[in-house]
Amino acid sequence: MGEFELIDRFFRRTPECRGVALGVGDDCALLAPQPGMQLAVSTDLLLEGRHFFPDVDPQRLGHKSLAVNLSDLAACGARPLAFTLALSLPHADEGWLAPFARGLLALADEHGCALVGGDTTRGPLAICITVFGEVPAGQALLRSGARAGDDLYVSGTLGDARLALEVLRGSMQVAPAVFAAARDRLETPTPRVALGQALRGLATSAIDLSDGLVGDLGHVLRQSAVGASIDVTAALALFSAGRGPAKVVPDDQQLAWVLAGGDDYELAFTAPPSRRADIEAASASTGTPVARIGSIEAAPGLRLVDAQGRAVQAPAVEGFDHFR
Amino acid sequence: MGEFELIDRFFRRTPECRGVALGVGDDCALLAPQPGMQLAVSTDLLLEGRHFFPDVDPQRLGHKSLAVNLSDLAACGARPLAFTLALSLPHADEGWLAPFARGLLALADEHGCALVGGDTTRGPLAICITVFGEVPAGQALLRSGARAGDDLYVSGTLGDARLALEVLRGSMQVAPAVFAAARDRLETPTPRVALGQALRGLATSAIDLSDGLVGDLGHVLRQSAVGASIDVTAALALFSAGRGPAKVVPDDQQLAWVLAGGDDYELAFTAPPSRRADIEAASASTGTPVARIGSIEAAPGLRLVDAQGRAVQAPAVEGFDHFR
Fold first, then answer.
1. Lowest mean pLDDT among A110-124, A140-154, B18-32, B152-166
2. In the sheet that A20-22 helps form, which strands lie side by side, from edge to edge?
């Protein structure tokens, strides 16, 4: 099956989306943002062996490939519009391509995000998606807006994807139900697109958590020239696999995964305490759990504290070294 | 050297370009197209071993990686605005990265095209660029506009890149000066960006020649529901390495490379005979050689003819089979 037949068969669709003037099938796609809108753009490259296991379910991989990009749009408060897909494949295998396209396009449809162009080539399995969203000019959520005194929030759960990764790597075992739930978090993350848009005009800063809370929050702190403290009790509660009666892993391991497990695709964001009710309303209206886990402070650096505000020793996780 | 340091060191720049509201360093870049403009988008994935040799000069590779994308913008008549770069690298080697960035950014600067975002990861060498340009709404050059009676044009030269490829593969030898010139065409193609913009409102269709004239023209013919004839004498003259006194390769080989050599990154376009003077003016004002090599016809299919209009047998090249 040749390149063009491949594209036609699995990926060509009539773009009848707002904002797309011309889709797949010419040298370029044409996007037509509404007047007053800026176009948010993000790109991610996923490689077999590095970002996913060779035997991952292709439908789930299709979902995740777009989800990690939509998560970047969410962190800017942008509304998804369109995406391009550049795909390198060892061979044109219908048994792989059909479910990959199904998973990818199902998530795209859910967010009204049109596939407008792409490139396919033969080579090691690699997936490069560039995603476009629109956001009213001047209203994008940035990393640079956190202010001392702001609350620090995180959406959803953290650390569960890492638990699944460790089980898949064979480094530990857990009960099948715990693993299944954690695996869903690793393989089919939920980009917080609705929450991101609801936070426009409300959050002072936001970032997408892909590398881990500590590392990614570090970008916000540096770009905002502030520091932060995180309440360890609130952080531990973000690990959903730890919510059952039986402990899955010791507290220190759980905390390390929450702080630096990676692959969470949640949002971390900041907002003034005066907006707590509005944040709760945004969480409720978008059906997205949100937890307040700390505060932004004038002193640079990142600190862990207990419920009484006393300093807690940080675990040895990647990312903390930037602050020492 | 970590990912963030890498980005900072070689690729971060302050975007002071029109149309770019926010560049590298947040979850998304923000583009702000002018009112009345559509955004042209194209993406290409280049892989070591498939699109370039492992030992290619990294500065030239940087140039080519962006050039092939700018060529897509040119084919739409769009003005370059910005691009994203997703890069997979076996290791963070400064001796490779510095010249790669130099070649990439020199061409970007030449076209006022800002690097606004990206992703870097460890893996086999792969380069995925997505490029953005702007074009007045409704004025983009498409593949679907060719009409029977139109002239068929090609910019620059064809087939020289293929000659260089064959020499590099060791399948033939030519004089050093001939090889050097052909190698420049293969490794540092010139995207016809100014010509593409000059053709707006003038050409009825246009396409970027990456796979080869026959294959790429086939997209125009199918999408325009027309056929074409190509004058073999005019086509042969497109092979610049064949212009010297000594024959480099036999005529049939030369013709095969012109028709299907690939990697040319020239424009093929169509325009009514009434616009011949305007096409010449566009060629002159942009300093881009343009040759009239045939005509669009109502009868579907692609035919080769001699200077007297008599049918010529097509060589056995890829792409022609679509028409038989």
1. B18-32
2. A20-22, A29-31, B37-47, B126-136, B79-89, B114-122
CATH homologous superfamily of A3-136 equals PurM-like, N-terminal domain (3.30.1330.10)
Interface-testing mutation among A43, A68, A143, A219, with chain B (most B C-beta atoms within 10 A): A43
Contact A121 B73 (CB under 8 A): no
Min Cα separation B311/chain A (Å): 29
Cβ contact, residue pair A123, B207, below 8 Å: no
If you count residue pairs, one on A and one on B, with CB atoms under 8 Å apart, how many are there? 189
Rounded Cα distance between A81 and B39, Å, is 12
**What is this structure's pTM?**
0.90
Number of H helices, E strands in chain B: 10, 13
Cα–chain-centroid distance for residue A248? 24
Q: What is the pLDDT of residues B52-89, one digit of tens each?
A: 888 899 999 999 999 999 999 999 999 999 999 999 98
Residue of chain B whose Cα is closest to the Cα of A128: B128
- Say which CATH class B151-316 falls into: alpha beta
Q: Indicate the burial class of B217 (C-beta count within 10 angstroms; 0-12, 13-18, 19 or more).
A: buried
Q: How far is B152 from chain A (nearest CA, A)?
A: 18
What is the CATH code of the structural domain delimited by A151-323? 3.90.650.10
Work out the pLDDT band at A90, boundaries 50, 70, 90. Answer: confident
Cα–Cα distance for residue pair A276/B157, rounded to 1 Å: 65
Which of B203, B29, B194, B38 minimizes the C-alpha distance to B115?
B29
Nearest CA in chain B to A68: B27
Q: How far apart are CA B293 and CA B154, in angstroms?
A: 7
Going from N- to C-terminal start, the domains of chain B cover 3-136, 151-316
The span from the CA of B283 to the CA of B98, in Å, is 35
